[in-house]
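User: Predict C4-dicarboxylate anaerobic carrier's structure from this.
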Amino acid sequence: MNERKPQADASERSFFKMPHTYAIIMGILLIAVILTYTLPAGQFDREKQDGQTVVIDGTYRAVESAPVNFFGLFEAIPKGMEAGAAIIFYIFLVGGVFGIIRQTGAIESGINQLINRFGQKGHIMIPMTMFVFSVAGATIGMAEETIIFVPIGIMLARALGYDAMTGAAIVSLGAAVGFAGGMLNPFTVGVAQSIAEVPLFSGLGYRTAVYLVFLVVTILYVMNYAQKVKKNPEQSLVHDLEKHRKQETTATFSQFSKKHLFVLVVLVGGITLNVIGIFEWGWYLTELTASFLIIGLLAGIVTMGVNRTFESLIDGAKAVTFGALIVGFARAIVVILEDGRVIDTVIYGLSNAVGQLPTSLAVIGMYVVQLITNFFIPSGSGQAATTMPIMAPLADLLGIERQVAVLAFQYGDGLTNMIFPTSAHLMAFLAIAGIPYEKWLRFVWKLFAIWIVLACGALLLAVVLGIQ
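Assistant:
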């Protein structure tokens, strides 16, 4: 996607250069191979309970060692692709559909229409804009797509007496909170719940309640900063930039039309149908993918014609190649640990390490693992494929609901995208906004600390309530 190009410049200015995400995955694959030689082989018994393949506590036993050789390291990658095929193609096709929706220009024009309508009312602009972007993040996983709105957000913020930091925050943090809330996010919650064998998009009510808390707190945080800057421009963290830079938006949007309205109606109607299908008819990945294809083809063919629709489908699929293929690479880690008969040894060791702790501390430990993992694997779907095959059975052994393990992944993945320099869209929008990373860090670190506290509270409450 064109929006990701600025990251190259941003990373060149950073203090260190992180290895490519796929290089990190390959390193983890090599470590997994080494573990098959160094860890004792062992297995748990498993059985089906309420549609889940669960680990039976107390059944771990030693088995014959089966170390993976050099060729097996690379053989595991296509095996991982095969194991994750349903999720990989789901990501490709849903990404293609959103490529069609983006090409119609309906989302951009619709959001721009709202910004123009409320943009001259400063007290309304911040919560309204952040809410709209958060809904997009929570339902269709909007992340990188928000980058094109950053210059508009900055321009409007400056016109209202705020600064570039405020303009960038109302766009990026709004989408980030929705992405982390992820009630219907197909690329994070959908993938994680599929791997954990949890009913798709279950726990919707609890996720929505937590999302609203995060959203309100984030809106108040941004508004508090904005008001300080308006009262005293010298309070701006980018005051030096404001004095010397006058950034204008180069993004242009077509006028909101009946075709755009049609696309948005089809999209909202389709998402509503998916929710009904999931909870009333037992829909899963296959049915959801088919429904999304109908949404995309109907919206595209009516507004753009057949050829442009399928060209946009391919372009959209290309845009998610990074996240789709990394699922296969990540599943290869599990393949190696399974073939080497040590994955249960890892689970057994982790369960012994935290088994003596209260359940609350155990779930916080799972959350910390997800936070750390996100630094190295910023792809949400990739992180889910890497961690959930271990976290789901670990949750079984610790007496924690798998839904809570998914929540630990969800909050560990989504929130860190706004602070870790390995996040592609973070570095991209900072580059476009002209905001140095260190200044953004000064602005967001307190909010991030609040997010951490709220996430831990949400996880503890989920354990107490037994969210399933």
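The chain has 21 helices and four strands.
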